[in-house]
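Help!! Second protein's tokens look totally different from the first
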Amino acid sequence: MVDDGIYRKTEKGRTEIATRANKLGMRERTLLIMVDDKTPRSVLLSRSAHPGCGDILDSLLAQDFIEINPGS
């Protein structure tokens, strides 16, 4: 887990948004959509009322739907 990195969608993440091929759950999909290459992790967490949102971001990262923007 990164304390406050900026995430970006991978090709797998963009494909999931377009096709729902991996059948992510509603919360996972919502957070994936919120990843925009500009918003820090702390802001993404503050925008979600779900208490497990940090774990969801970590899961999306581990499953290669998102990655840490190396310029952040």
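Here's the second one for comparison:
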Amino acid sequence: MKIISTILKGLRVLVLALIFFACIGPLLTKPAMAEDARLADIVVTNTRDHLLLYFTVTNCFTEDMKTAIDNGVNTTFTFFVNLHEVRNWWWDKKIADLKVSHEIKYDSLKKVYQVRLSSENDKVVLAEDFDQAKRFMAEIVGLKVTELRNLRRGNRYQINMMAELDTIKLPFYFHYVFFFLSLWDFETDWYSVDFRY
């Protein structure tokens, strides 16, 4: 009797899962992924003391993502940057390896987007409209990659960078919809800039 009861419970779960997938099937034809997210406007420069990096992630938001953010889903972009000294007859020497993030959340009471920028010492900036919030999220502005004293005059260097959308953390009551998370993932290719100091 217990075996039949267990089989019936399993069949109920299977039927509910099939109904659920049939209902969300049309949603899967229009994925929430950002199409062809890439880095643009890459600038490597320096101040008197630091090597600085600027770049922008393009094509990284969709209407579905905006809707989710407006409904309380926190979203984080993570940026990876590394700097190597290029050596011809030896392995390249790693100078810097950075990981910074920008996190956005919508405050529905104040009707503002809060963007936390770990690239700027966890500074929190407020944006009243989504276009401004997108710029804060997608731009790396004056990231200090390393101190210039770590570089040697005349040597060749390569700076590499990429961005990815961290897995969306859904509210507790949505955790059973795991397969949706893959629709939100994006990562850019690695981009490289070679220069001499």
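Reply: Different proteins will give different token patterns, so don't panic. The beta strands are 38-46, 50-58, 75-86, 93-107, 112-117, 123-127, 139-147, 156-165, 186-187, 191-196.
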